Amino acid sequence: MTTELTPAQLNDVPTLRRLREAAPVHHVDLGRGGAEWLLTGYEAAVTGFSDQRLMGDGGAGEHPIEEAERAGRVIFEEDLVDLSGRDHQRVRRLISRQLTPRRVAALEPKIRQIADELLAEIPRGASVDFVAAFARPMPIMTLCALVGVPDADRPYVNAYVTGRVATLPDEPRALSPGPDMTSPETAEMVAYLGALIAERRRAPAADLISGMIRQADAEGLADAYLVAAVRLTLVAGHRAVTGLLANGLAMVLRDPALWARLPERLDDAVEELLRYVTPIALSVPRHATAPVEVCGAELPEKAVVRCAWGAANRDPARFPEPDAFDPARRDNAHLAFGYGHHFCLGAALARAEIKVALSTLLTRYPGMRLVEEELVYRTGDLREPRTLRVVLEP
Question: Global pTM?
Fold first, then answer.
């Protein structure tokens, strides 16, 4: 039996609870062009995504980046996020070896500066949309600083990233261009990044691009891989932070006492927000290269397998009282950043951004209040309020 699920249901706690209680693995139709297998239990997610047989690329080819370059086109944003095979390994290695804990720690003063600059533009006593004023621009500006985008070019990159990736799944959306239909916006961004890479090769700086260039040159990788790695960092690196800040604040600001408690153990509170909110609803797909058994379910060869992270993160077999938000929760091995070979490379950066944002707000605006009671949500793999009206100093 195949269960049909909408994007909204992938973010609906009661729906996910019913699925998880019925079974840890389900045959589903997510409206993505065919039936898939959905993991809803914590054990199913961990054991399934640890299985090397769920790491195929579904026949997409080992070198889609090189193949696209030879054909005079580029890999689109959605395909970059789902990239598999050897090109996935190459792009992932470029990012992981440069986005180190040391680099993230060195970036924290800049993250604080960005938060300060954005908050300085927000009227203290007036109602303001916090998503537009802070939660969305902050991670994009941080990524620009990390990558090495010049200050003057950041509005362009911000417009591209929000326009190309933050298109709302519940609104009309054109299909991805075909092989011979590279969008002008994407082609322009690829050309921009190519020029920026060439400039950094001439004059290296202490940024991510310069580090990636040194590594790519040492490994003999073409610039197409550098462009792909930078684009992936930009287009995939902001979504979880925006969703966590918007949804997390919408939840905690409804309870002033809870908001006041967050500073007591902020590191634990950040982890609990990630578990409880789980900003990214659905994993990137895995393709079974052979038959696989997951928690008693027989998944056939070539099966497309995904995980509903929100369901796994509220599995009572792993988390006591999973539907309660406990900012002091310990042993919080949540799956908000995924699991296995697609684990989020920007997890440390995302944690740093969220902690800086919350600590700054809690210190400066302990009386911050939510104005908008009935929130309207954008639904899809990423669920966030369309607006989140708050007053910093009521």
Answer: 0.90
